[in-house]
């Protein structure tokens, strides 16, 4: 019930106006968000890199409601690509197509995506197109495949294991050589399109790990690029120790090197697991969000972990 409530609140403009005015809300949100400026983001990545951890930077924003806002978001992403290059950081970028105008006009979003991919190619970097709710999955994948067909091998995307369609989508992406971050999914979806039970989502996650790693095994040289900005075909995005264990065991079972999969975490969550994997020799990348449009992301993080919700509620009454 609480999960559904917080996911609904993530889309409620009245709640955003109210909650973002609460000082303690930002204090809580800053656990998951590196800061509001490019400088904050760069400092966070520098700290991660110093600890042997890679990063992907996400300038927060989604569901832009005007062409001007979409173009401003594109400009902001170009600036972070330039900042990464100038600072010599081991970080790529993650973006949402609704941030680039997808809900307004798919051609607008595609044009902005191409602009970003071209700049990323100029500076030798990689762009991950994040996945959004099920209403945007089909068009998101269509534009990712279109970009790949246009010659952009520096584009990847995300697959959510709770969606019934994900095995077919994953096979198609792997066949095209498009790098995939596998996650469970963080949106409220109807049972008509997504597994409602956690056990089924977990089983589907393991199945998708196998699909990706088997595709990786078929490559002549499985593993990540010598350029650490480019991840391998398989990125396992989870804080669930059982899912991480399954992926590690699958790597061994298939005779793949540790570098054939990258383990990805959200900023501020399970730092202990991050360090354990780094010490074991696996590539680890942290998803680092930043920016002033932090509210929807923050609400989804609260929805994922009941402990976060109760901390948030208790902070309200202590205000």
Essential attributes:
TIM Barrel, eight-stranded parallel beta barrel, disordered C terminus
Question: How much helix is in the residues?
Answer: 40-55%
Kindly state the number of beta strands.
8
Number of helices: 13
Sum up the overall morphology in one term: globular
Total discrete domains: 1
Which CATH top level class fits?
Answer: Alpha Beta
Fraction of residues in β-strands:
5-15%
Strand arrangement within the widest β-sheet reads 1-2-3-4-5-6-7-8
CATH architecture verdict: Alpha-Beta Barrel
Structural class: alpha/beta
Largest sheet: 8 strands, parallel, barrel
The third-level CATH topology is TIM Barrel
Written as H for each helix and E for each strand, in order along the chain, the element string is HHHHEHEHEHEHEHEHEHEHH
Mean pLDDT: 88
Q: C-alpha Rg, in Å?
A: 19 Å
Unreliable runs: 311-319
**What is the straight-line distance between the termini?**
25 Å
């Amino acid at each position: 019930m609480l999960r559904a409530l917080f996911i609904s609140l993530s889309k409620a403009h009245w709640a955003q106006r109210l909650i973002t005015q609460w000082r303690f809300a930002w204090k809580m949100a800053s656990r998951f968000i590196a800061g509001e400026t490019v400088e904050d983001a760069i400092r966070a990545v520098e700290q991660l890199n110093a600890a042997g951890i890679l990063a992907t930077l996400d300038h927060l924003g989604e569901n832009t409601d005007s062409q001007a806002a979409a173009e401003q978001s594109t400009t902001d992403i170009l600036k972070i690509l330039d900042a990464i290059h100038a600072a010599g950081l081991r970080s790529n970028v993650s973006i949402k197509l609704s941030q680039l105008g997808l809900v307004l006009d798919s051609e607008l979003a595609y044009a902005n995506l191409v602009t970003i991919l071209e700049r990323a190619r100029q500076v030798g970097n990689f762009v991950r197109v994040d996945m959004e709710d099920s209403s945007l999955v089909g068009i998101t994948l269509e534009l990712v495949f279109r970009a790949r067909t246009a010659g952009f091998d520096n584009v990847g995307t995300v697959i959510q294991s709770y969606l019934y369609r994900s095995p077919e989508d994953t096979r198609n992406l792997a066949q095209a050589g498009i790098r995939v971050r596998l996650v469970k999914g963080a949106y409220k979806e109807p049972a008509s399109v997504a597994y409602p039970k956690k056990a089924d989502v977990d089983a589907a996650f393991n199945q998708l790990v196998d699909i990706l790693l088997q595709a990786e095994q078929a490559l002549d040289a499985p593993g990540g690029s010598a350029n650490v900005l480019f991840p391998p075909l398989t990125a396992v995005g989870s804080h669930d120790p059982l899912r991480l264990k399954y992926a590690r065991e699958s790597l061994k079972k298939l005779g793949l090197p540790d570098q054939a999969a990258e383990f990805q975490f959200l900023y501020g969550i399970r730092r202990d697991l991050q360090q354990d994997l780094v010490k074991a020799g696996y590539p680890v990348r942290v998803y680092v969000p930043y920016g002033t449009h932090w509210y929807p992301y923050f609400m989804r993080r609260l929805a994922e972990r009941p402990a976060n919700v109760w901390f948030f509620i208790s902070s309200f009454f202590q205000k």
